Fold these 2 entries.
Entry 1:
Amino acid sequence: MNVSNDKTLGWEDYPEPKIRAVRGTLVVEVSIPRPIRHLFGSGNGKTNNRRLTTGTTDPAIAQRKMWTLAHEIYKQFDQAQIDVQQRQNDQTDAFALDTISTLAASLNYNRGNLPELNTKTPFSDLKKLKDALDYYRGIFHDQAPPAEISLAALKVVKDAINNGTDPVEAKKKAMAIYGDLGPFTAKQSALLEVVAEFRTIS
């Protein structure tokens, strides 16, 4: 399971805790659910559980502490999923910003005077850029390539977004799928398709 694509696990999905003796101390152990096991240890999926010590050898005391410590482990499972999703979101955002900038530059938008794509840029400048790219996208759509070409290019984009494919390489592969279409070069055609894909997943 890819956490970014499938259901994020919640506490109702986590195994119940167990108390075990480890090196003379009682610990609370929770098995790591298989779908998120790769998020722990070295990332090879071989780390099977998380443990927290009760700090005691008394079974009664350990039993009283069990669920408090189990909840701490559950929070670790939650955070691991949040962290990986954030990394993927950051990578997707960086990919999108780079693609938009590359497309705008290739179209010589505003004679090459491109606005910076950040929160410091006035909204009106960003909207002008968006409107211009939407206009070009409309022209591109009216002269759409055969479905099999678009689907092949979009698969490259989706693979890059979902699997962490290198953005530069992904765009090169997408560009190679297109020939020169209408008023757009292969590079521009691929970038327009990529930008359209970002719109569908935002």
Entry 2:
Amino acid sequence: MVAPDDGMVTGAVSTATSRAFTHTGDEPVKRLHYAREVRRLALVVLLALAVPAATSAAVSPRISQSEIAGVQPGMTRAEVRAVLERRGRLDRLEGGLTRLAYPQLRVEVYFRDGRDAAVDVLTWGERYRTAKRIGPCSSELDLRAAYGSLRRTVLPGGEVAYHLGRLVFDVRNGRVLAVVLGRGTATPYLAANSLGCGEQGG
């Protein structure tokens, strides 16, 4: 009789002990799963944020006498799309102009109807800068301090276009709104009619 009792007690103790270990073992496992899930979600968020940053980082932020964002006057539509790594939105405008618009990059490229060669390249993006760190959102004072006396064209609406070689800086209320690279007679007016510093493209 003693043996069965001992066996029952032993079995009960073993079962209880097993349950105790199982119970106490669950918590670390749950915490481990939770920590892994948090890390996984954090990685997903970081990757999502990194994709647009990496995409825009691939585009040159330079403004010069020969290019804006790597796009040069004279480039074909195919060449522009290759440089900016996307097709862009095609808009037909008045005055025989066609525009390839890249709102996310804050870049626009203009063509004359019937010609596959860019005539003007425009940006209103703050990340684009000349060698002297001037670009959209720069102050008029900084522009003049960097480049001295510049030829000016007064535009409708009180805006002023400052000419620096092939570059035109559109200024309103003391701030550069957009920069255009080109030599067409319409170049200053393209800047005046574009989106400006801080505005979101559609």
